[in-house]
Structure formats: C-alpha cells, structure tokens
Amino acid sequence: MKKLVVLTGSPRRKGNSNMMADAFIAKAKELGMEVVRFDAVDLKIRYCRACRHCYSKEGACIYPDDFNKIAKEVVSADGIVLVSPVYWYTFSAPLKLVIDKFYSFCVAKLDFSGKKSALVSCCGDPGLETFDGIRFAYQKTVDLLGIESVGEVLIDDVHGVGEIRETCGEALAAELAEKFL
Predict the structure, then answer these.
(1) Which string of b and e fits 16-52 if b means at least 16 CB within 10 Å?
(2) Burial (Cβ within 10 Å: 0-12, 13-18, ≥19) of residue 117
(3) Are 30 and 104 in contact (CB under 8 A)?
(4) Distance of alpha carbon 65 from its chain centroid, rounded?
(5) Ramachandran angles phi, psi of 97, nearest 5°
(6) Are 133 and 84 in contact (CB under 8 A)?
C-alpha cells in the first residue's frame, strides 16, 4: 500500500486549497492509498535555526516541536503533497516553517529517491504568473531532495471561501492522486 503525506498551509479550514486537499485525499484513499495529513496551521513549528544538529538526538530536529512527527512520516512515505494558497507569491507562513525544516533531511543525507511529490495551490489574483514564486520554491525543494514531481494543480482567481467549487480545481486535485500509483 502506498503511503502519502499531505502537508497543507491554509489558515482557512474550509478554504479553497483545503477543499482541493480534501478532494485529493478522498481519491487517494479510494485508490487504496494510506494518507497522513498535517495541517500546518494547527501545529507548533519553530523556525529552522540552521544549527546542523539535525538527527543528532531523538528526532529530526533537536528543538522539540511537531516537525519531528512530520519528519518521521515523510521519511516513511512514498509521496509528499504540498498544498497551499499563494501568500505573497510563495507558500503560506505555517507551511513555509515546515518546508524550511526539510533542511534536516539534507543535513542527514537522507535518500529520497523513489519518492514522488505534487503541488496543489490556488490564489486570488488572476493569471498563472502569480504562481511563479511558489512553483520555483516547490521545484527547488523537490530537486534538492531528489524527489520526482508528478504534477501541479494551480487554480488562479479564487479568493472567497468556496470559489474553488466554480472551477475544475477539486477534480484536477483528485485526478492528481492517480499519478502516485
């Protein structure tokens, strides 16, 4: 059974990106995958201090916070899905704190070859160029970790809660789950 970790960054529990995450997760489970979801907004994550003591004690980070739970699941997963609305042209702050701590995987020289990843995002501005920053950060992250990106779902011009339902965003997010088989 494939195991996926879905990391979300929306501060709106019923926001548009979380609706796409829900659609992705429902389809992944329907396809027989195990899904572990972390909503970064609900977690206690301290910023990365670049101390380079990663994995030197118990857990990925010597400063105890919820990242150690996330790291354990990410290491054992077959795939990672990053879901975030665009905030100031990149990931939202809660999810960015999590991603910053991915540095621990590099310090520990963990081998992520064979893992797959995807990006699911939406933004309030019209135009796909709004995603340039988040796409760059995502691609550099997966390249650095040696993870294969299997796709992106990027839906622009949705801001109000529920506006995603007027687009193909949820359907595309669900279809993305099939790429993890």
Answers:
(1) bbbbbbbbbbebbeeeebebbbbbbbebebeebeeee
(2) buried
(3) no
(4) 18
(5) -60, -40
(6) no
Q: Which of 148, 62, 69, 137 is nearest to 107 (CA)?
A: 62
Residue 84's H or E segment, with its range, is strand 79-85
Q: How far is CA 104 from the centre of its chain?
A: 16
* Residue 93 clears pLDDT 90, i.e. is over it: yes
Residues 6+ apart with CB under 8 A from 31: 177, 178, 181
pLDDT digits (tens, 9 = 90+) for 16-72: 999 999 999 999 999 999 999 999 999 999 999 999 999 999 899 999 999 999 999
CA distance 40 to 52: 23
Pair 77, 115: CB distance under 8 Å: yes
Residue 12 CA to residue 73 CA, distance in Å, equals 24
pTM score, whole prediction: 0.98
**What's the token pair of residue 102?**
């991915």
pLDDT digits (tens, 9 = 90+) for 130-162: 999 999 999 999 999 999 999 999 999 999 999
Q: Which of 70, 132, 147 is nearest to 104 (CA)?
A: 70
